[in-house]
Amino acid sequence: MLPAISIKNVKKSFGSKQVLKNLNLEVNKGTIFGFLGPNGAGKTTTIRCLMDFIRPDAGSITIFGNKANTNSSNLKKIIGYLPAENQLINNWNGKEHLKFYNSIKKGKIKYKIFEELEINPNIPVKELSSGNRQKLGFILSLVGMPELLILDEPTRGLDPILQNKVYKILQDFVIEGKTVFISSHNLDEVERICSDVGIIRDGHIVADMNMSSIKAIKTHIIDATFYNKVPDIPKIPGLTILAKNDNKLSLKVQGNINGIIQILAKYDLSNLEINHATLEEIFMDYYKIKS
Amino acid sequence: MIQSLYRDLRLRRNVIIIYCLIILALVSLYTAIYPSIQPHAAQLMSSVGNIYKYLGIEGKTSFSNLANYTSIETFGFTWPILASIFAIGLAGATIAGEIEKGTLGMLLSLPIPRWKIFLSKYLSGLLSILLLVIFSVLPIILAALLLNINFHTTGFIYIAILCLLFSFAIFSLGLMFSALMNEKSHLYGVMGTIVLLMYIANTIAGLKPSLNNLKYISFFHFFNSQKALVNNHISLISWATFTGISIVSLLIGLIVISKRDIVI
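The joint structure predicted for all components is written out below.
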């Protein structure tokens, strides 16, 4: 099946600084793709290339099989975009923005959505809070019933209730076979709603996998409390000691945990907690290991 | 493109209205005081006539009729400067200003080709300038009718055309630079310097015969308000210069905006 987004060997420099270094990425149709990376890794530059605001120095970007920079205005008929920075007009209110978007994109959306996302459409943007501006931007990205949503930090500034509403809208969107590309710092959000994840570091992709593969990596965090002093733990593959003090030991185990459980079972324990590593811990691992 | 054009006009509506009202007040004032100046025209010219030469106003200076007076007082010095400021301000706000604010991203994220965005901004600028010229010329005619001052309408049609040509050229040049830049202050700096240098070149050319050819690098030389108002004539070289600059700037601007990276 043709991918929704295909980025091949993309390079982009600003002056002497190379921001994207041979970036390769594929986003499948009908998925919510989480695009992760710290500040300066190249996330926004990638999104700007996807939106054809800037052009790569080398490589190619295709969206639904069409080149992003030659079919840009046609592609934008089926792309909804939410930027990280506010691009709204300060003197216009929500209704005026929606009217403008509706006049350009086919597949209009109704004012009712303002009620659903609890935003007053008659207040000028300059008087809206950052969260309400974010909501308005999100509403506008949905105009035209797009096939692909490109969202840069979509829930920034939203309270948890509204975040859930946004997640619900996105999940319904994907059920219809559409695709969502989310750049986010919020790893809980990515873990919760994304089916695929790409991690960018220093201008190239260091991990590109689906969420179930990430979970299958089976990284566990084990916190053990001993009645006595913490014993010496023999080195076994995949085991890392995170912290150790008098009678407490924190371990990270990648892969099968039977080996370490058998070792710990030899000692008197007052408490033992075993947790799955979060996406954040996996993400941090990528950054530590790869750098 | 119509939506984008309408958006642009709406965004700049207040500035356009305020500027048009200022121009209207100014030209009405100039025209209203003409009846009190006319009886002393010869005396006034003998004492201050040389000043106009230093300001780069060519030709025979006289206040003997409304056309002569208006061509010197209104369109000889004040109007070109005010129109230049207006045209440069518009050019700066429409592209560089929108990049600076980030609002151009809204248009770029919608299914509108870049050349159409540029063209809609160009047309909105032309329409704004047309409005400014109407507000500059019509009040003079109305004031003359009200005050029973003799005048010929043809001259005012010619001056309106010349004003349009002059302002379009400044605006087109400004929009071309605006398409290249990310901040409107940079555009104002560049265009302000260009217009100032053109004005100085025209003035110096009038003062020193050895530097007479300098006038050909100045738009102000080709903006001959006296010929348009008094003789009902716009020289071919004025037509060619203003239209040529406008078309070339438009084409360069279109190429630049289509090719450049816009970091929003």
